Structures are given as structure tokens and as C-alpha cells.
TrEMBL record:
Keyword Magnesium: yes
Swiss-Prot/TrEMBL GO biological process terms: carbohydrate metabolic process
Annotated ranges, domain Alpha-D-phosphohexomutase C-terminal: 377-451
PANTHER family: PHOSPHOMANNOMUTASE (PTHR43771:SF1)
The keyword Nucleotide-binding is annotated on this UniProt entry: no
Entries under InterPro entries matching the protein: A-D-PHexomutase_a/b/a-I, A-D-PHexomutase_a/b/a-I/II/III, A-D-PHexomutase_a/b/a-II, A-D-PHexomutase_a/b/a-III, A-D-PHexomutase_C, A-D-PHexomutase_C_sf, Alpha-D-phosphohexomutase_SF
CDD domains hit by this protein: PMM_PGM
Organism: Kribbella pittospori
Protein name: Phosphomannomutase/phosphoglucomutase
Cofactor(s) demanded: Mg(2+)
Family membership: Belongs to the phosphohexose mutase family.
The Alpha-D-phosphohexomutase alpha/beta/alpha domain, residue ranges: 7-134, 159-258, 268-372
Keywords, in A-Z order: Isomerase, Magnesium, Metal-binding, Phosphoprotein
Molecular function GO labels: intramolecular phosphotransferase activity; metal ion binding
Length: 461
């Protein structure tokens, strides 16, 4: 019997195929999705896409069978990146399901679901109810319907590329040479369409779609997966490097020297561009992006709004504030012009526009957005995250000039530094992020906090 609770996470479904996630679970999820979202009442159809993993087509087809078994229809867009699925949901105003396990290894697959207009489906917005129905169906079997729905196939790749190019026009920038590492993921499918014409010359790395990831994991957050891209950028003298994760909804940026540009710097740069088009708008940043981000937003006439880590919180804040843009430390970037959904491809176009509209190299251009020194995220194994967090607060909380808040875990701030510790939802870990005005201060604060996390083994991401 499949343990449904183990694969339904806070924001999506994720599990090993076929041990945890198989076609019967996908089929039950399709039927439950229709019932929980009341799809039959309106709009009567669901859009479905899938990535390049070997298990994805069959799982997506089973999900579609579950949808049509209720009488609802399916719009099958076939191979897609996750942001392409969000585009389809927004353009067609249909709820959607994307079959992908993002950056996870090949043995995994999963489902990212959204309401019409790419609005998220998470634990508190329907996912828990879907899980309950799936568990019931797996145990008792599905209820058949006399008149099933229909499946229509629709290719939206060109429309997706056209929409992005309408939002950021690169036709007037100087010629650029860009190395793109798709990691054998969906970037190998979408990048050629988005950059089919214009002044950007793409040098491809690992564009062959292969869900077994023969070259390296499609997880650019891990530095070892950037090594090939960095080497190629230096070898060919490229202006920039871009790395996409498996489902191509996140984008990481490498400068002409082969050095990573932090997602906070990208957030700052894109925020400045969006505020130039939409003066005075709100911009969302999560609480572990650099202090430079709210500073830049304010300096350019915008209103910085701080949010918890996680796409559901970012999208909720964007809706509440009508924010034009939102950025996270994990290289998720959200745009009001893209149904508040995250799209690494649109962020990449903004980065290329910012670079190509002036003559400085990327390293020099983005140095203006890198004002502080950060530790990167440190994962610390602990037996009791709550007790450890309380001990850290006891140590730092009463010091002069210190402020403390609990928006997401514990954030401790001083004039020259800040740090945040957050408990993982799925593992016995505390995640530590430290930032300071200079490296010695950052290292001192980092080491003081780590000393309080007794017995921890530390892994840098």
C-alpha cells in the first residue's frame, strides 16, 4: 500500500517511482484534483504538462485518465518546463498539473499543481484535501463515470516564447555570447525557442533531454554542478553563463570570469528594472535575501515587502500588495506580468537586457548589487531544532542593538550583520544564513552561532 502522506509535501507531490509514486496514485490524484478544485463546475478542463524524466509521460497520462474519469477534459501540452505550464494555466485560465521532480535525482518524480491563472495549490489551499481523497481512492478504488471527458493536445511552446520576448525585448541590446547549461533538463527544450532570433548567441551545454542526468544533477544550487558551465564560460570568453534546474523554473547566473552572481544580486537588478517600468510598486523579497535587496528597492522608489521563504508565501504577498516582482535566495523569481508565477527564463531575459544595454562586463555590472558578504546556507543536523533555536535566541536576544523577529524561524539583526535559523519541514536540520558588512564579521557571527548548535555537522549548499 502506497504511503500517500509521505509523498504529499507542503507545495507539491514528490516521491520515488514506482515505490512511492506510480500510475495508480497519479490517476487517483487526477480525479481528486477535479473534485477538490470543483473543475466540473468551471472551467471544466485541466492543463497537463510533463518533463523529460522517463516516468513522466506515463504518469501524466494516468493523471489525465483520472481527470477524464470524472467527466472533465484535459488540455495536454506535452513536454514543458514548469514555467511553461504556468504560462498555459494563465493564458488558458485553466488549473494545471506539471509532472516533474525539479532538481531531484532520476529515480524521483512528482506533481506541481495550480489553480487557474497559475495560482498555487499548497497544503492549506487544497493539497491536503487532495491527499485525503487520493488515500481513500487507493484504498477503496475509483468510482467510474459513464461519460468521460476528452483529451486535446495543444503545443504552446511558441506562444510561451513569444510572451516572454514581448515582456523583455532584447532586439536592441549589444551582441552577447552566453553559455547555457540545461543539465539535460527542460531548458534544452525551451531555450532554443526563446532565443530563436536576436543578438544573443547561445553556446549549449547538455541540451539533450535525458531524465537520467548523465552529465551532472540538474541542481545548480550545488556548486559542483556549475563546474562545467564555469569552465566553458572561461574557455570561450563568453559574456555570461546561465544554468537551469531540471524543470527550468530556476536560473543561476555566472559572470564572464566564471564566478557565480548571487540570486540576491539578480533579485536586486531585476527589481530595479521592474521599478523603472512600474514606479512606486511593491517588490517582495524573502527574509534571507541580502540586505542590499530592500535597500535597492527603496533607493529606486519602490516598497520592499519581506516574506517567508517559499513560493506560496511569496505569491500570497504579491497578491496582497499587487507587487510587480518577487525574488528568493534560491533563484526563484516571480513576476506580476507572468501571473505572479516563478519563471527563471524571464529573469534570465532581464539579466541579459541589463547586461546588453550597457558596456560593462557582468562582473562589474553586478558588483553594484553585491554590497555584503554572505555565508551561504549552512545545514546543521540537530536533535531538537526548537530547543536549539531557543538557546540561540537566549544568547543573542538581550544584547544591545539587537533586534529579533520570528517571521520565519529566528532572525537576529544588528547594524553590521544579521542571521536567520529555520527548521527544515522534512529533516532534522536547522538552516543557517549569515550576512555582514565584511568577511571577518560574517565569519565571527557564523562561528558563534554554529558553536551554539552543539553536535552539528555542517554542510554548505
Amino acid at each position: 500500500m502506497v504511503d500517500v502522506a509521505a509523498i504529499f509535501k507542503a507545495y507539491d507531490v514528490r516521491g520515488v517511482v514506482p515505490d512511492q509514486l506510480d500510475e495508480s496514485v497519479a490517476r487517483a490524484t487526477g480525479a481528486a484534483f477535479v473534485e477538490v478544485l470543483d473543475v466540473l463546475a468551471s472551467p471544466g478542463a485541466v492543463v497537463v504538462g510533463y518533463d523529460m524524466r522517463p516516468s513522466s509521460p506515463a504518469l501524466a497520462a494516468a493523471f489525465a485518465e483520472g481527470v477524464t474519469s470524472t467527466g472533465a477534459d484535459v488540455v495536454d501540452i506535452g513536454l514543458a518546463s514548469t514555467d511553461q505550464l504556468y504560462f498555459a494555466s494563465g493564458r488558458l485560465q485553466l488549473p494545471g498539473a506539471m509532472f516533474t521532480a525539479s532538481h531531484n535525482p532520476a529515480r524521483y518524480n512528482g506533481i506541481k499543481m495550480c489553480r487557474a491563472g497559475a495560482s498555487p495549490v499548497g497544503t492549506d489551499s487544497g493539497l491536503r484535501d487532495i491527499a485525503d481523497l487520493v488515500a481513500k481512492t487507493v484504498a477503496e478504488g475509483p468510482v467510474p463515470i459513464a461519460v468521460p471527458g476528452k483529451v486535446a493536445r495543444k503545443n504552446l511552446l511558441t506562444a510561451y516564447a513569444d510572451h516572454l520576448n514581448d515582456l523583455v525585448d532584447l532586439s536592441g541590446i549589444r551582441p552577447l555570447t552566453v553559455v547555457v547549461d540545461a543539465g539535460n533538463g527542460m531548458g534544452g527544450y525551451t531555450v532554443p525557442a526563446v532565443f530563436a532570433s536576436g543578438p544573443v548567441t547561445i553556446i549549449p551545454l547538455y541540451f539533450e533531454l535525458d531524465g537520467n542526468f548523465p552529465n551532472h544533477e540538474a541542481n545548480p544550487l550545488d556548486p559542483k554542478n556549475l563546474v562545467d558551465l564555469q569552465a566553458k564560460v572561461r574557455e570561450v570568453g563568453a559574456d555570461l553563463g546561465l544554468a537551469f534546474d531540471g524543470d527550468a523554473d530556476r536560473c543561476f547566473v555566472i559572470d564572464e570570469k566564471g564566478d557565480p552572481i548571487s540570486p540576491s544580486a539578480v533579485t536586486g537588478a531585476v527589481a530595479v528594472r521592474e521599478l523603472a517600468k512600474h514606479p512606486g510598486s511593491a517588490v517582495i523579497h524573502n527574509l534571507i535575501t541580502s540586505r542590499a535587496v530592500p535597500e535597492l528597492i527603496t533607493e529606486h522608489g519602490g516598497t520592499p515587502v519581506r516574506a517567508r521563504v517559499g513560493h506560496s508565501y511569496i505569491k500570497q504577498k504579491m497578491a496582497e500588495t499587487d507587487a510587480v516582482f518577487g525574488g528568493e535566495h534560491s533563484a526563484h523569481y516571480y513576476f506580476r506580468d507572468f501571473w505572479r508565477a516563478d519563471t527563471g527564463m524571464l529573469a534570465a531575459l532581464h539579466v541579459l537586457a541589463a547586461l546588453g544595454e550597457q558596456d560593462k562586463p557582468a562582473s562589474e555590472l553586478f558588483a553594484a548589487y553585491e554590497r555584503y558578504v554572505a555565508s551561504g546556507e549552512l545545514n546543521n543536523k540537530v536533535d531538537d531544532a526548537a530547543a536549539t533555536t531557543a538557546a540561540i535566541e537566549d544568547t543573542f536576544g538581550d544584547k544591545p542593538g539587537i533586534t529579533v523577529d520570528h517571521l520565519d524561524g529566528l532572525t537576529v539583526s544588528a547594524p553590521q550583520w544579521w542571521f536567520n535559523v529555520r527548521a527544515s519541514n522534512t529533516e532534522p536540520l536547522l538552516r543557517l544564513n549569515v550576512e555582514a558588512a565584511d568577511r571577518p564579521t560574517m565569519e565571527r557571527v557564523r562561528d558563534e552561532v554554529l558553536a551554539l548548535i552543539t553536535g552539528a555537522s555542517v554542510e554548505e549548499n
